[in-house]
Amino acid sequence: MLQSKSPLLEHFSGMYTYGQPKIGDAKFSRIFSTQLTNKIFHHAYNNDIVTRTPSWFHYDTPPGTLVFIDSAYNITLYPPNPYTNEPVPVRPISFVHLSGILNHYVIKRLSGETWIRIIFRFAFPFCLNDHFPSEYCEGLRHGTVNWVIMAAGGIQGGYRDDKRTVNRPRKSFSAVNVQNSASNINMSPREPAL
């Protein structure tokens, strides 16, 4: 493991994980230096169950930036808290909105999928289907980075409307629309934008 004070750190260009489960505890996920966590990217696709497990024994979110890809292939980046280096956790699995084979984005893509992949879509629950490597590959290949969400704590990554995560009191939140960088949104009730 690369340590925070290692001379090899300047040669470390980055680490990218796809569908990685929770590892370590909260202390582990904050122990790395900012220089190192800025080079770690933890990808989570829509309702992938593996990125939310295990939920027992105080396992916590992996260190680094959360890259959330939704079913429409919209990509949102959630860097760690700039003050505490705490990573942004993935939201819980959503059973409210249509997902899996009932999702209209998935239905549009069915014609381009192999017959075996279509069988898997019907045979497995949506939270397991979202862990397939092809979902990550296609999401990154055809997706667009729309938002970079920077927060000083208390949010979860991956909500459809990221503005609703800050309507709760005492949340510091700053969103940058990457498609239209002129529209910076500061959603901080008491603190300045980060």
UniProtKB/TrEMBL annotation:
Protein name (record): Fungal lipase-type domain-containing protein
Gene3D superfamilies (alphabetical): alpha/beta hydrolase
Record-level Gene Ontology MF annotations: triacylglycerol lipase activity
GO BP terms: lipid metabolic process
InterPro entries: AB_hydrolase_fold (IPR029058), Fungal_lipase-type (IPR002921), OBL-like (IPR044819)
Domain (Fungal lipase-type) ranges: 13-56
Coiled-coil annotated spans: none
Taxonomic source organism: Phycomyces blakesleeanus (strain ATCC 8743b / DSM 1359 / FGSC 10004 / NBRC 33097 / NRRL 1555)
